[in-house]
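Shift notes (night). Ran MULE transposase domain-containing protein while the centrifuge was going.
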Amino acid sequence: MDMHVMQNTMFESSNDVDRQAVYILDPPITIPASLTMTTFAALHTKNINIPKRNCVGGAPVSIKFLKCEVCKRSYSSKSSFSNHLKRFKCLQPGLLNKHLVDKHNILEVKKFSFDSMANFQIWLEAESSSTFTFFRKLNGNLVRGNKIFHYYSCQFYNPYYQSRSTLCFRNKKGVIPASLNCPVKINVCEEKGLVFATYYPIHNHHTGFHNTKYQRFKDSTRNLIKSYLLLSFPIVQIQNLIRGNVGFRGHRCFVPSKEAFISRRSIRTYYRRLQNSVRPENDALSVMCNVERLKAEEYNPILLFKPQNSKTLYGPPGLDALLNSDKSFALGIQTETQKEMLIKHSYKIICIDSTHGTNRYGFYLLSIHIQDEYGQGYPVAHFICNYLDYDTLVTLFNSLKCRISNLRVYNVMTDDDNVCYTAFNSVFGPNLNHLLCKWHVFRAWNRQLACKVHSNDLRNILRKKLKKILNEKCHSNFKTLISEFINDTSVKTHTFIQYFLDNYYNRLELWAACLRQFPHGFTDTNNYCETFHNQLKSVYFQRKFNRRIDNLIETLLNMERDRFLKYMCNINNNFPLQNNSMNKIKASYDKGIKIADGDVIQINSNSWEVRSQSNKLSLILYS
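Came back to this:
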């Protein structure tokens, strides 16, 4: 600890003619009459610095000297003396402790010994919890021979050389007061596996739980949180495990601790830091590393990779010839299992859809799905790109064709967008059956009804008619319904009918159910893709905004693994195939149609009494 005491020394001129004077120093020095002041100053320049502004005719007039009692040096200006105090180390660091003992009798010294550094850390955490104090380690380790010294101080100890930057905002919890210099410290000596600690425990400030707002969590707590996160524990469950039984109705009287008030936000911060610590900070570099790692696997799942401001590094180089090639980014992924599933089920139907909001760069995620033998959607390829124009999509689909050159595709379903189908048909066509997702079509109609029809009653009537037209499977009835709809509605709302005629009446084969009388996997919507995107954002991202592309890649691969395990579970559990289940449903329906009307008696609006067809004496109640 630096201990400095200032002492003023002065010299004054005793003779205004020859400027001779006596310097009052320690010890005092008298200048002989035969020695002029100029000569004296020149002889002692190295010891006493006299600014020229305090000299007249080369001789000093009157100066106040500031003297450091530690190093015995004198300074003529307060600024130089202040700089000296900041830079000069105390020659006897124990002066403050000696002063506290001799003058105030407030310093207590405790000595401890431990058989290992780990046991010392356990004691240190226990002492921190009991005194609500965070012991900060000063500097590094000091090694002298076979001894290693460690120095810890109270969190309220502010070294004089520590500069505190002024923030433009106020911290709600406040900051540690700069005026406090708590003398509590722990000097640790590590020698031959043994640890000896000298502890000065008396604080010069109040110790209480409110001090924990300046502290971080204990190392053991932080390590425990990281362990739970690595084991994929939910954040809410981690919070409950850290708290224990504190706060339960029977445990409301407890000694407060920082761990008892841990928040889910703090745990999410550890999770984010843990994720960022295992990958490069630069997202582009991390994506490059992931691509190289995947390419080095036994089966290369990379279909295409083109970074921004670079040529295509893997896959067909179609993007390099585009005008936006410098800004374009594209990455295609397909695992070996996804390739096999695509080859096996591509003859049914291919569902293609894109989504946004999966990263902070605004890149799109384009997913391709097929229907497996259980009637469930299976993702077979993913593309991450920042453009969805025709030329870009052609290059993406070309990378898929390069991987599977003899792929059989007959039906393609997209949302209400013709660009995706046109690009896919140019690669895997020609003359593929194009189906529009009925859900997207009906949503587009609802949006236009809200904009172009102002009457709520008329909107509801038109919505019911459109839904009936969309789902009508009889071709003759469909023609009748749509002609009646156009004739009846053209007078009431000309703007909506004009929109319907321009965009959908000339494309009936894309959305009408009666014109889909060909095998297409009983699929009329793109819900396979929509469900997948919803799981990605809700289950895997937990509706938290994902920022990085590398995290998106890892999540897509994890989802592929989970979907594969679900598929294998269906196989091993003999899950009924789609054709068998549909046959059972149809057989049950046909059997119900054959029941005589006299065997069905309605009891009320929600209950029916049906006579058994195998045993006419028994009755079955349905409600």
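Residues 1-50 have pLDDT under 50 and may be disordered. The longest strand covers residues 377-385.
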